[in-house]
Structures are given as C-alpha cells and as structure tokens.
Design brief:
- The protein has 446 residues and is α/β, with parallel strands linked by helices.
- It folds into two domains: 2-259, Spore Coat Polysaccharide Biosynthesis Protein SpsA, Chain A; 298-444, 2-Layer Sandwich (Enolase-like, domain 1).
- It is built from 16 helices and 15 strands.
- It has a seven-stranded mixed β-sheet, with helices on both faces.
- This is DUF6734 family protein.
- It holds the Pfam family DUF6734.
- Residues 1-282 form the DUF6734 domain.
Length: 446
C-alpha cells in the first residue's frame, strides 16, 4: 500500500495565495512537514500535482517524494475553488491499494501498517451540524442534479459524513465507481457554479457523498479514530506540544487560521527540517521587500543554537542575539520533557524567561492583567492572568528548583490532606506545563 498526496493550484499561479491559511507561508510549511513526516514512516510517497505545484514543491523546495505525477493541469477548466476535485481525480488514478493524505495532515507513525488490508479507510465518521445544513439549503435549490446517494441526507434521514483527511483502501473497484459518480455530480452542475458557494460545495461531493455512497452499498469502512465528533468539534488536532505522544495532527478548518497553531507548526519545521525551512524562507525574502524570515538554518546550526541557549539558561545570561529563535527551538519538545521529569520524580530548574510584557486592559470598569508574548515574525500571543498565575509568576521571578517552588507556592493554599495535596500538585504542574507551551518558562537539568 502506497501513500499519495495531491496539490492543485486551481490555475492560480500565485506563490502568496494563502489557500485558507493564516498566512501564505504556512501553506508551504504544511507541505514541507506533511511530506517529510510521511516519507519518514512510509516507503512509497507519491505526489499528484499541476505544473505550478511541481515548480514550488519539487524544483524549489525539493521535497523528497519518491515519485511525482504532473497531471492536474488537466483540471484547470474547473472552478478554482473546487479544491476537492483534485483529490477525487487522484483517487481515480490509483491502480493499487493506497492511502491519500491531505497536505495539512502530519503523522508520527505508519498509516499503511494499520490499514494495509482495509476495504475502505477514512479519518473518522463525523456528525454534520447546522453549518452543513445551512450550506446545503442554500446550494441544493440551484443544483440541476442531486445523486440518489444524497437523498437520505437531503431528507434529514442521515446526518453523517466521513472526514477524508486520509482516504483509501484496497477496494479499487468501489473507489473507481465512487470517483466516477462524484465527478459526475460536479460536472452535471457546472452551469450553476455562478449561483452557489463553491467552497461549501466541496464537502458535499466529497465527504457527504462518499458516506452516502458507501452506506447504500453496505461497504465496510475502517476509521483511524473511532470517536464520532461533530464537524465543528475537532479537539486536539493542532496539539503540536503533545507530539510524538500524539501521532496524528490535522489542521482542518479553524486550526489553519489560528496564528498560535501555525507558529507551533513553523517551529517544528524549523527544528527538524531546517534545510527545507531555509529554502522556503529564501523564497519569501526574495519576493518580499520587507521580509525578514530566518533563512540560514541547517541541522548543525539548529543544534548549535539549542546548545548555546541551554548554556545561557544554566549561567543565567541570556544573549539577546537571535533570542526568540533560540527560545523557540529550545522550547519545541519541552512539554514532553517536563512530563518526563515529573514521571521520573527529578528535581529540575525553572526559569522565567524574557520575551513578554505584563499589560493591563480596562473596559467598562473591568481591569484585566495579561501577558503579551512576543513571537518571531508573527503576531504576539495574549495570556490573561488570574490570581494563581500572579502568585506563581511572582515566585518565579528568580530561577528556582522545582521542589523549592512547590513548597513556596504551597504557603498560599489551604489544605493538608492527601487528596488536597494531589489536587494542588496537579494544579501547579498543569500551570507550569501551560507556561512552557506559552514560552514564558523553561526547565532544564544540569
């Protein structure tokens, strides 16, 4: 079973097209990370793309796909917003068992080992909400043709869809039939595209239609996740601070428009794929007159920056040169290391680091204290402070070891029983973990 991915520009040959991301650079970073992680865990990873995608992803970024097919310029007669049509066409082109993985999906384990014998595979079953219903009620009156397989959804007898962050299987005959009918659904309604929301239409001829098509034919579907969330309740799919313990992320929907999540992805790419990151940064700096992306990273340079930063932490002498860069690189993976310290019952040093300002906002006679945390080439993050934060940050004004910190903070809290002690430790540890994720605290051992 091989892995395939698909890229189609919609005949929009603009490097700065954001494709729904917070900023266009994160679209390209997503492809860097998705490809590298797939290649790390799978033998065969192929890309189906148009010429523009080939020029950027292969010629310039030199992503390590094992095979590349430049075939999707044939789709340029379709509306530019029909992003799912390239996926459907890529499914249709497969002649052997496969898994298609979206370019905003990242894995830390093999997918093909799990599903090499599966009839059909998708990420998960989902419950469609009012968002889908409103979209469909606006679209369907304008359609010339509605497939039989969508009638149950249309008549409110079925409100399920399949999230297709991954899709594939061994039943190629069924997949051929599904893709032919899906493309027919699109083609029969092409004359109506000026009257409907094309972006919303994608989910109906892909995710909803597939579920209806498979259900009507009683085909067995295996899911990566057995949970069935509502379409607007995907939790944890952008939790970079939990990898590699969390082995699958999918920056669907709001995740790709969230600056904080995008920044976590960027730092991961910086640290583990610095050469690819620098290639992209050089492209951005060349095209943007005022661009200041970091374009000098190599694996050796990253290791040097992390090592020198830890020495600065130990000596309590942080060097301002490339401070935010060094902070970010050191911080990646630190939440997992923090948990390892706790599990092993190690004592460790806690340092409140620079890079943020304490501010106050007053509105309608309500005053809120918060931290504004600086980010490298991105908007600052905001962290509201509550009374517990103020106590803990006060005790962290000077470097302190963990056990001493626990004792000092305990003086502010009541309760001496075993359960109260467990709750106290859980509270403190959860806050410390949050501070690490927010990049205001670092931990280390000598």
């Amino acid at each position: 079973m091989k892995i395939v991915q698909s890229f189609w520009s919609g005949n929009q040959k603009e490097f700065t097209n954001n494709y729904g991301w917070f900023n266009y650079k994160y679209n390209w970073m997503s492809w860097i990370l998705s490809c590298h992680q797939l290649v790390k865990y799978h033998k065969d990873v192929e890309l189906y793309t148009d010429q523009f995608g080939y020029d950027i992803l292969i010629k310039k970024l030199q992503l390590p796909y094992t095979k590349v097919h430049v075939v999707h310029d044939k789709l340029n007669h379709y509306h530019k917003d029909l992003w799912a049509i390239a996926k459907i066409k890529t499914f249709q082109l497969q002649k052997e068992p496969f898994l298609h993985v979206d370019g905003d999906v990242f894995v830390w384990e093999s997918l093909t080992e799990k599903f090499k014998d599966s009839n059909l595979v998708t990420q998960n079953l989902e419950i469609t909400t009012h968002f889908y219903e409103v979209g469909w009620n606006i679209i369907y009156p304008k359609l010339t043709f509605i497939p039989e397989e969508l009638k149950d959804y249309h008549n409110n007898r079925n409100n399920y869809a399949c999230n297709m962050g991954i899709f594939g299987g061994t039943n190629l005959n069924f997949i051929q039939e599904f893709t032919r009918k899906s493309i027919e659904f699109v083609d029969e309604n092409k004359l109506n595209f000026d009257e409907i929301n094309i972006l919303n239409f994608n989910i109906f001829f892909e995710q909803l239609f597939f579920h209806g098509f498979a259900t009507q034919r009683k085909e067995k579907i295996d899911y990566l996740f057995t949970e069935t969330p509502k379409d607007n309740e995907y939790k944890g799919f952008g939790d970079f601070h939990k990898v590699p313990n969390r082995t699958y992320l999918h920056l669907l929907g709001e995740y790709k428009r969230n600056a904080t999540v995008c920044k976590f992805m960027e730092v991961y790419v910086m640290k583990y794929y610095p050469e690819s990151y620098s290639k992209l940064s050089k492209m951005i700096n060349y095209l943007g007159k005022n661009a200041t992306e970091i374009d000098f990273l190599t694996t050796e340079k990253v290791n040097h920056l992390i090592t020198s930063y830890k020495e600065e932490l130990i000596n309590n002498k942080l060097n301002i040169e490339h401070f935010l860069l060094k902070r970010d690189l050191y911080n990646e993976g630190l939440p997992i290391l923090f948990d390892a310290f706790l599990t092993k019952k190690l004592n460790f040093e806690i340092v409140l680091i620079e890079g943020f300002e304490k501010k106050t906002h007053t509105e309608n006679n309500n005053t809120v204290d918060y931290l504004e945390i600086n980010e490298l080439n991105c908007i600052p993050r905001i962290y509201p402070l509550d009374p517990i934060d103020k106590i803990m940050l006060h005790e962290l004004e000077k470097s302190i070891n963990y056990y001493e910190f626990i004792i000092r903070c305990k003086e502010y809290f009541d309760g001496d029983g075993f359960e109260e002690c467990k709750e106290y430790l859980s509270l403190i540890n959860n806050r410390l973990r949050k501070y690490i994720v927010m990049k205001i605290v670092h931990v280390f051992t000598f």
